[in-house]
Amino acid sequence: MKAKMFRALLPLAIVFTMVSCSSNSSEDNSTANKVVTTYNYNDTELKLITLINNHRQSIGLNALEVINHISYKSEEHNIYMIDNKVVNHDYFQQRSDNLIAVLGATKVGENIAYNYQNAESAFSAWMNSPAHKANLEGDYTHFGISVSIDPATGKKYYTNMFIKKK
């Protein structure tokens, strides 16, 4: 009798478990509909902002305006990569959707990098990659940047997001 009851309830327990558990693999969505207005830039981030805008202006493009919310979303992605020990564009669509909804972006791009010692080396790597260079020189109006250090390894994670606003 107990075995029959167990077999009858086991599928229900499995379904309940699958439906009730939330995944911890996604990025924090606490800023889903709020604009983050403050962000404390470190020296590497400030240097990258300058390098990117100087390059854009040197080839006749507009300088990009920094938006703290974009830097915050970039930092969230760095934290995700550090926590999960990955270097990728996971959850880009969610970040893009947030920038579209919250900031009115019409176009979104993203560059990431890992383990470059300084701003110049990360910028150089992006410039030597056709896809990353295309973002750096793309039809954008605003951007944000985050450089985070993994406390366990000391390695740096870079996320640079670009948007176009009307």
What can you tell me about this protein's structure?
This protein starts with a helix and ends with a strand. The protein is built from six helices and four strands. The longest helix has 19 residues, at 2-20. The chain is 48% helix and 18% strand. It has a four-stranded mixed sheet with strand order 1-3-4-2, sandwiched between helices. By secondary structure, it is an alpha+beta fold.
Q: H/E order of the elements?
A: HHEHHEHHEE
Please state how the strands of the largest beta sheet are arranged side by side. Answer: 1-3-4-2
Shape: globular
Structural class: alpha+beta
* Uncertain stretches: 5-29
Biggest sheet descriptor: 4 strands, mixed
Please state roughly what percent of the residues sit in beta strands, choosing from under 5%, 5-15%, 15-25%, 25-35%, 35-45% or over 45%.
15-25%
Number of helices: 6
Summed over residues and divided by their number, the pLDDT gives a mean of: 86
CA radius of gyration: 20 Å
Report how far apart the termini are.
Answer: 68 Å
Q: Bin the helical content.
A: 40-55%
Q: Work out the number of β strands.
A: 4
Task: Record the SSE blueprint.
Layout: H1 2-20, H2 43-58, E1 65-66, H3 68-84, H4 92-103, E2 105-114, H5 119-127, H6 130-136, E3 142-149, E4 156-165
Parallel strand pairs: 1-3
Antiparallel strand pairs: 2-4, 3-4
Helix pairs in contact: 2-5
